[in-house]
Fold:
Amino acid sequence: MSTTEPAGGDSDRPDLHESTPLPPLPRVDLSDYQGAGELLRALAAPPRLAIIDVLADGPRCVHEIVEALGISQPLVSQHLKTLRAARLVTTQRRGREMAYRIADDHVAHVARDTLLHSREQPPKPR
Structure:
C-alpha cells in the first residue's frame, strides 16, 4: 500500500475521489422522534438503566431492587415513579407488595444494547 492511499485500501472506490451530488434528503418531521426522545430521557439516569436491566430478568419488588442496586429505598422508588410515568414499567400486586416489571421487551433491549455499546467504547481521554 502506498503512502498516498487511504488506510483500508479504499483508493479503488470512485465515490472517494469524485464529487457526485447526492439526492436531496426527504423532509424530516421531528415530531416523529418525540416518543423516542422521551424514552431515552427516562433511561438517561444510570439507576434507571440498572433497574430496567434487573427487571429484564423478571418482576421484582422494591426491596429486591434496593438490594440489587445498593441504593436507598426512597431513591429506587423515585426512579420507579419516573419509569412508570414513562410507561416503561408496570406494577402487579404480589401479596402485600407491588412487583415491578418492564412494560415490554423492547425496553430491555434498548437498555442492554446501550450498556453493551458503552462498554465497547475506548476510555475517554482525561
Remarks:
- Residues 22 and 45 are 39 Å apart (CA to CA).
- Strands lie at 60-61, 89-94, 97-102.
- The radius of gyration is 22 Å.
